[in-house]
Automatic annotation (TrEMBL):
Superkingdom, taxonomy of origin: Eukaryota
GO biological process: dCTP catabolic process; DNA protection
Cross-referenced CDD domains: NTP-PPase_RS21-C6_like (cd11537)
Reactions performed catalytically: dCTP + H2O = dCMP + diphosphate + H(+)
Subunit annotation: Homotetramer.
Protein purpose: Hydrolyzes deoxynucleoside triphosphates (dNTPs) to the corresponding nucleoside monophosphates. Has a strong preference for dCTP and its analogs including 5-iodo-dCTP and 5-methyl-dCTP for which it may even have a higher efficiency. May protect DNA or RNA against the incorporation of these genotoxic nucleotide analogs through their catabolism.
Entry GO terms, CC: cytosol
Protein's organism: Manihot esculenta (Cassava)
Documented EC number(s): 3.6.1.12
One Gene Ontology term of the molecular function aspect: magnesium ion binding
UniProt protein name: dCTP pyrophosphatase 1
Compartment list: Cytoplasm, Cytosol
Record-annotated NTP pyrophosphohydrolase MazG-like domain positions: 40-113
Gene3D superfamilies named among the record's database cross-references: MazG-like
Amino acid sequence: MGEGGGEEVAEEKVTDISLKELAKKLEEFAKARDWEKYHSPRNLLLAMVGEVGELSEIFQWKGEVDKGLPNWEESDKEHLGEELSDVLLYLVRLADICGIDLGDVATKKIVKNSIKYPPKIC
Ligand SMILES: Nc1ccn([C@H]2C[C@H](O)[C@@H](COP(=O)(O)OP(=O)(O)OP(=O)(O)O)O2)c(=O)n1
């Protein structure tokens, strides 16, 4: 998605993109298709949960999986990346539609977590 919602092929590896930039791209994507009317908080939440289900299916019945997925086919890793992306994108869009600055609140939550679970006690 480019400026104004125009499509662009993401051939180059994107190494650094912010949550705000993703939210902007998703807004442009929805605007260009007149899909803003579908992107209500509840719809986005349900869509995200559906994608969590698709993500879960990838791991279903596999037993424990080694970190880094050393024995997986490249196509399976690619599929995993797509499902992770769907979950992330709906989450980012949901937060944006709700007026929540996800980067800010997530950073603050990490601080809160570190106070709740101090390193020496764990
Ligand atoms: N109303 C919609 C529909 C889709 N998308 C975007 C967000 C997701 O990243 C992706 C989801 O697309 P699909 O519903 O086609 O789901 P999948 O990509 O998982 O396809 P499939 O369910 O066929 O595996 O498209 C969106 O923003 N708003």
